[in-house]
Please model this.
Amino acid sequence: MPQCLICQAQFEPFISFGKMPIANGFLSADQFTDEYFFELKAGFCQNCNMVQLTEQPDREMMFHQDYAFFSSTSTRMGIHFRQFAELVIKDYLKSSDPFVVELGSNDGIMLQNFAGAGIRHLGIEPSANVAQVAIEKGIATICEFFDEALAKRIVQEHGQADAILAANVMCHIPYLHSVAAGIRALLKPDGVLIFEDPYLGDIVEKTSYDQIYDEHAFYFSAASISYLFQQYGMEVIDVMPQNVHGGSMRYVIAHKAKKRISPAVAAQRSKEKQLGLDRRQTFEQLRRNIESCRRELMELLTRLREHRKRIVGYAATSKSTTVTNYCEITADLVEFISDTTPIKQGKYSPGTHIPVRPYHEFADNFPDYALLFGWNHAKEIFAKEQEFTKAGGKWIVYVPKVKVLE
Model:
């Protein structure tokens, strides 16, 4: 029986997605025979309310010099991170020479706002290729994994931080105890940790099971985050729902008794109890909803192909790896996946080996249907793809329900 990474209690997985490859491991044909697989299982710890994977590949297999995700490819996320930075500057940077540290800073999409404002900053990014992009922008970045030892080194070299930031990063890190201890050491007595990640409540409400993949070791709630940080003399002082990545939550953490706690924290904890995020039965129901979604999606795709309709995937995302492998969607059903990221083009999707092709192959010869893997960017995508819909193209979505958008 697995042991919780947060409280060490034993827990039972509530779902297995079966054999799964590295989610962002887009590969060439000569790599098929050596492709790595593991069993993707998720469980709920009744003791601390943390939902988590029961096993995760080694971090170097997921984050490396060929990491295939660059945050700056999304215009919408660029706006989101600019607004995030503006909030931090306005509400939390009060000292005369503030210092900001970002964990998992990717290509500098958020830190560029602090650099542009002349604010001392440091990005921590373990994937060498995206870290290099940030460095070339003039953003102070080191290519390492963050932990307690690195935090103490940063304090020696730069001093403590007024704000430590992270976006879609904390949930990736299985050794959160070392991270929390590092944050405690790095953060000034009156400083704040502000981070956001996909929110467990949204996953449950929307059956957005594609949020579950190898990089996401944890699926956070206000309750589970509170449990973790209280062990390090820290507390959640605010929560802010975010309409990105299919539903995220921004958490503000401070040293205990140093900041006023917003009423939003108690309200969110109450809502989580109403949603049943503290009960195993909720996750048993989630498993049943996921199984129904798989069955309905496969029935739809199979029926369309029987009627000789062309189906193309839209956006070669990490999330798409969970969907294609769990549902066993291959190139027999989905002709190819269109993506604008050069490092993915000409490769194949992990596990199911659907070709990934440049965007122009979608735009030059519209399919009958586009299977929207990038559903969390739907608003941005639909605005861009009006010609597709005008030409009679239809979108297939599977969150929160499987359906064809007419």
